[in-house]
Specification:
Three copies of one chain form a homotrimer. Chain A has one domain. In chain A, helix 1 packs antiparallel against helix 2. Chain A contains nine helices and no strands. Chain A is about 75% helix and about 0% strand. Chain A is an all-alpha fold. Chain A starts with a helix and ends in a 15-residue tail after the last helix. Chains in contact: A-B, A-C, B-C. The interface between A and B is medium-sized, with 32 and 32 residues. Chains A, B, C: Pfam families: Gly_transporter. Chains A, B, C: This is Trimeric intracellular cation channel family protein. Chains A, B, C: Belongs to the UPF0126 family.
């Protein structure tokens, strides 16, 4: 049961993140193959990194054809209906928040299953959520938006922590998954809607060397 | 026999990709050590990533001194005879196409040997071919040319698929290696010679946010 | 005894590199979470990469909470006392040299313990030393300073080679650690103080395509 839930969350997150990768690629005028590579990278590199770090090789995204199929599908949809996808770019932001919630929760569960401690598992959940987006932006030579966006990584971490606390308190995984994912989505939703920011530090000099 | 063939293809691919890394480093005025680091990265990171993903650790490029020796040799040749290397930059493009063919084929064979499915093995072959070039460009803060160049990744994928189809049909590995590598090289050659491009998507707005 | 020495060197190196990551993040106006991510990346990615490559998964920096604790501490200190940290930026350069020495030596020892050959172990020690700084700079879309700075990677390699030579000659690990680390620090110190550079190659054309 938990197994199926994890798989659905993982593939759903892969799909929405792959769309974000494809949109970035189209905006930078990559050709269709570049679009598919960025779809795959954005949708799967967070999970692949997690799997390599916890020793689960070959990673699910490599061993199971469903991940690449979902990524390619998302890339093709974006490529051929870009004007449509672009008009829905606000909706994409919501999809992305859903993907983040899926990945943060599923990544944390998988890390716990592989024996990581309750301190480190949420961090791997967060990495699952932000890893793909970081590589997506690095590949188009930009500073990852994940490192600057409103409460992005923090929302992922909050959802991941809920999952771990639930596990320690022996709450049903289904319940913690829903609450953790919901919290992650809600935080990200509020951050976008109300423009919540985390503070930056003090260097007020405008000239950046 | 297949073992020796794989080793020769792998080291040959490493050499020509290491030269491409060194040329990029010299163009960005890195010092000799930076040149050697980029030689190693361009020549080996595709294969290292493949080995980590299929669980073959330590990766061949780390465990076997020949890979680093070949990379350093390529870096030193480029560094000390740069004006000569540069005059042959068109030839380097051909070498690079040879390297791509070598890596795509050898990477696919290795993935099959380690038990990956016929669906995923060609993707790992392609990754072996394009991974080093991607890191090379990311390290000098540019969008990887691999993601934009004429039929680059697609040529690698086509060659890799030939290897897998041959394996499924029980054709001799030597034959599929030659046909697959030849197809990859031919596609890349035609793409450079005739300026073949893959299509890009529709965003015709010139202002890129 | 060697075990404790390695742990202290590793955590000390993590702390000073995490500070360098945090300073880079603050200079690029990332928010506090981005600062912590860059602290962790700069302080730990070199060691994580080494551990993945030698098959020691989950990597120490993931399995042991002390690494993340030290990284977060360094990030918070930098974030809240940035004007102070910035005034000591020359001192940070010295700290960074100390961290490089720690990592180069500890990374080489760990690679030897995991059975790597005396040829490859120093290269993994060097990678431990420069990996975090490379990702730090890539994440803010800059060419890694490691690839250009005065004798940076070479100092790490020299210290690492001392450790390996000592091991081959059956010298006490404590002695080789001190001599190797000292050599690395001294080379880097001299390079900064006297402006020592490695040579670059010949392309004298000012227009860089």
């Amino acid at each position: 049961m938990l197994h199926i839930l994890l798989a659905v969350l993982d593939l759903g997150g892969t799909f929405v993140f792959a769309i974000s990768g494809a949109i970035t690629a189209v905006k930078h005028r990559l050709d269709i193959f570049g679009v598919l590579v960025l779809s795959f990278a954005a949708g799967n590199v967070g999970g692949i990194t997690r799997d390599v770090l916890i020793g689960a090789v070959p990673p699910a995204a490599i061993a199971d054809w469903k991940y690449i199929a979902v990524s390619v599908l998302a890339g093709l949809i974006t490529f051929f209906w870009y004007p449509v996808t672009d008009r829905f770019s606000n909706e994409v932001l919501w999809f992305d928040a859903v993907g983040l919630a899926f990945f943060a929760v599923a990544g944390t569960e998988k890390a716990l299953v592989h024996g990581l401690t309750p301190v480190m598992a949420p961090l791997l959940g967060m990495l699952t959520g932000i890893g793909g987006g970081m590589l997506r932006d690095v590949l188009v030579a930009e500073i990852p938006i994940v490192l600057r966006a409103d409460l992005y990584a923090l929302a992922a971490l909050a959802g991941a922590i809920v999952v771990v606390v639930g596990r320690v308190l022996h709450v049903s995984p289904i319940a913690t998954t829903i609450v953790g994912g919901g919290l992650c989505f809600a935080l990200r939703f509020m951050a976008i809607h109300y423009g919540w920011h985390l503070p930056t530090a003090w260097p007020r000099d405008d000239t950046k060397s």
